[in-house]
């Protein structure tokens, strides 16, 4: 649905300290789920001023809700 603002909010929640401490729960996740999360983490990586996100944003078809950051 190209809603990057909501995706960034969800990823921020999943990467919060209380969620990251759920080690036993993470062990129960499938490898597909872990791969999808890793892909989203890579896309929203803040290195090089969110370069991965900017490159991906150039290639999508509108409409979209971009992530502007805070």
Spell out the key features of this protein.
70 residues, mainly alpha, 60% helix, elongated
What does this structure look like?
60% of the residues lie in helices and 0% in strands. With 70 residues, the chain is mainly alpha-helical. The protein is elongated. 3% of the residues are buried.
Could you outline the blueprint of secondary structure elements for this entry?
Layout lengths: L3 H11 L2 H4 L2 H5 L3 H13 L7 H9 L11
| Shape designation | elongated
> What distance separates the N and C termini?
22 Å
Total helical segments: 5
| β-strand number | 0
Mean of pLDDT: 91
| C-alpha Rg (nearest Å) | 13 Å
Helix content: 55-70%
pLDDT < 50 stretches:
none
- Approximate strand percentage: under 5%
What profile does the largest beta sheet have? none
Order of secondary-structure elements: HHHHH
Q: Structural class of the secondary elements?
A: mainly alpha
Can you summarize this structure?
This protein is mostly helical. The chain is 60% helix and 0% strand.
